[in-house]
Sequence to fold (1087 residues):
Amino acid sequence: MLYINCPHCGLRSQNEFAYGGDATVKRPELNKEISDQEWDNFVYLRKSPRGKHLELWHHISGCRQWIKVERDTSTHEIFKTYKANEAIE
Amino acid sequence: MSQGFRLDNVGMVNREKKISFKFNGKKYFGFEGDTIASALIANGVHLVGRSFKYHRPRGFFGVGVDEPYAILQLDRNNERDPNIRATEQEIFEGLEVKSVNCWPSVNFDIGAINNFLKMFFPAGFYYKTFMWPPSFWYKIYEPFIRMAAGFGEASIKHDKERYEHKYEYCDLLITGSGPSGLASAYAAAKNGARVILAEDKPRFGGSLLTSDVNIGNQTGVEWTEKIIAELKSMPNVTVKNRSQVFGYYDHNMLVMSERISDHLPKTQKYLPKQRLWYIRANEVLISSGSIERPLVFGNNDTPGVMLSSAAKEYMKVYGVLVGKKPLIFTNNDSGYETAIEFKKNGVNPIILDTRSDPSSDIIAEAKNLNIEIRFSYVVVAAKGYKKVKSADIAKISDDKKELFNIENIECDCICVSGFWTPSIHLASQSGNKSKFNEKIDAFVPDKSKQKENTIGSANGIFTLEETIKDAFDKGFDVSNKITEKNNKVSVPTVVEKKSTDHDKFWCVPLPKGKSYKRFLDFQNDVAVSDIELALREGFRSIEHVKRYTTLGMATDQGKTSNLNGLQLVSDIENKVVPQVGHTTFRPPYTPVSIGAIVGREVGKHSKPTRKSPMHSWHEKNNAVFVDAGVWLRPRYYKQGNEGLFEASKREAKNVRQNVGVCDVTTLGKIDVKGPDAAEFLNRVYTNAWLKLPVGKARYGVMLREDGIVMDDGTTTRISENHYHMTTTTAQAANVLSHLEYYLQLVWPELNVNVVSTTEQWAGAAIAGPNSRKLLMKLFPNLDVSNEGLPFMGYKEADLFGVPAKIYRISFSGELAYEINVESDNGYFMWEKIMEVGKEFQIQPYGTEALSTLRIEMGHVAGSELDGRTIPYDASLEGLVSKKKDFIGKRSLNRSAFTSTDREKLVGVVPIDKTTSIPEGSYIVKDPKAKLPNPKLGHVSASCWSVEYDNPFSLAIIKDGKNMIGQKLFAMSPLKNKTIPVEIVSSHYVDPEGKRVRS
Ligand SMILES: [Zn+2]
Fold:
């Protein structure tokens, strides 16, 4: 079980969190004309990298904040965690 | 029966307390502190089971978790427990155990015929034998495999025992209380670290219990007792026996099972049977020791052939002789220690040493004791069927390929030592890639992946002096990283006998003309010939060889079988062992009971139960409840002999004719507050929200980004910047997460806060033509006329002294209101509604009537919004704004979603107006069409229409609206029904929606 350092609450066990997928995906702005391809990329296409991955976790049984976690998908090592809108190093 | 193999005054069992137990129905005696194995051996019993595949007789091979054979079925306190190792289970008064894998008895086993048919059971026999014809599976193969397989029978009764889970945090977890575990625990504890020391066995000390050594001028046993006593007195230390750390997971999470009551006749009142510990450790020291390696020779699975270290432990710990004419077969000095122990207890052993001319302190001692030793000698084959009676032994050439002077000598046990295999399971589970150590022919842990270190013989260190020194250092180092106290204790002096190098020889060649089975994996009946066959058949990867032959599977997990198997593959392939590699070690290291894994999350405790504040009223009034997620909701209120069908029909009818009241507390409720709340709702819902006035409610639909409907519900503008959103019961939690996602990550610039208020409000829906009259009586000072409180209006008022909120919304399609009060007042509100409603013929109605009402109105719910439908499919196109953007809008333009033949919502009525259509039925044109019959759509919900008194269903079918009026068929192969139907509008009752506005 992972041990995730919530930037708001501190180190908490994985079972307090819900996984939220790739954190680098950016939603297209509202009312912007975009192609089917761009929209499909946003809705469906995700990379599944082996190694470093910036991903969303929702501290659902804690502070209810969405956070960003930089994790190695093969070793589960967590390098750093960020608040929702903190600048990523 | 007398304990004929029990030594006087030797061992650690409690001679004061005699204990009786039954094995295969026969009564035996042992002493408190005995395991089943030691007590049976004391009684001269060695035949305890039959092997997995060939049903060969099985005895005892080890003395602890390494035991591959002696797996028994236990009856304790009227409970059945399979997969019990006789070498671990302690005896208690009244214990009953029996053998597994044998029928009708362990002495006469019909399955043993497999042994004579063994040419039919080679490697991969399951894959080869049970292939064809397929019809044989059901009648012949499966029953046969079921008869033959398994380590006992699981109980099918509910397990009444209690199992607990415990979460613990520590600076340092140490897995094993042998010399390295004790030394490191002591050093770390003295340095102020919070330490957990876990020992699998009942007694602490590991190898110190049986080795003839001296630490700080004390015997190993004395030193152990002193250290344990001191550790137990320290507040920063937890010491646990009968506790196996069996799994090493991510981020230094380890799981340990503590057997609290297994050794007692009955679980004590306030204690669980077992406790599962989830331990998050800052650092881990793995001190799991090593397991003696078998030597491979003919019939080396015969009862009486066992590890030499086990024979020694039976003598020193339990005071039991495994035999009175022992043959010791060894390739290293460990066998000599066992021989010396036999000699000290008045038994004359013979040592066969594969080495030609070794010399060391221990060998010299054995010679001084006049023990017969034969160098360059091997056991060729054990003789005897149910117990070793003699052995063919031979001199072996220097190149270890030829045998000379084969002779038969009498013996009653053969104690083997093929050197030691470090238990690297936990280190390997942590992600540590092991490395091969040539000196000891075994894998040891390599670089740490997580915060772990392996110490003692688990790390391939086999001298006590080095072990103790290294463990004291490691205990200090890892604790000091955490505590920084620099409190270093001095390392005691160690006196031990020096031993010399072992011989890498491990497998005795077959003499000419002999085809003895030479076993590698004793538990799974894998012999040398099976591995040879697998390789001949082209299996190369060790992982494939393992699965094809079953080498190292089940509870063995490579404990005794691993290295000899790898050695054989390497020899055949002309490789060295590290090139072959080893299979992956996975948790659990030892079997864990399912009960311990489940803990207390059984039955009603497997999930929380949510109840509305009116629950006890429902109970008192004969409600039959249904699970709605974790909520309990009344499904119907039973009157007299009514069943579900009659009751729900009566309740629904009463809503259409008079007035009904329904507990709607379970609906999700979310407060949306802030200056940008309107803008936020406008983005979340598909329809327009900017112009909703204060005091008005609106129905809304929200989509996922892929265009699929996520949820629906009404949201009311309570004040300028405050909205009260409702969601379906099922989606409440998901909708909240969804809103938080957009507010926190996508549009952080919006000044809006959301919070769940589901538990804060109790809700009652009153519906039916009499509902306004009822409302007038409930709120006499409020203008509830159609003008004063119009459809989708909202009012706050006082309900007999209790503040209430009234929403004029309707799910039933009737004139209806929803009243919310604070949860604490819910029961009061409900009673008042029932009391005042009496004169209007009010009746409570449950979810079944609620479904009937919404289905015949054509209102969609979860069975239509099933994660596949877009708004158009559910006839919700009127709610999709063309002007503004919202979540998921762009997806609605995708070609699959704009195609005209999408499945859409319609109504379905059986032509005969009597046959109910099963939910899930397919709608087809021709019921006799060739299979697979082209499907037009499916029936999503069915009810008995109380308005028209005939069955009615909703369905989602291709090109739905254009199908209205067509005569088709509903087919349910599951219910074996084909029903002629007519497609009608989904708005079966009050299509203009007059009633809700009346
Ligand atoms: Zn948090």
In short: The mean pLDDT of chain B is 93.
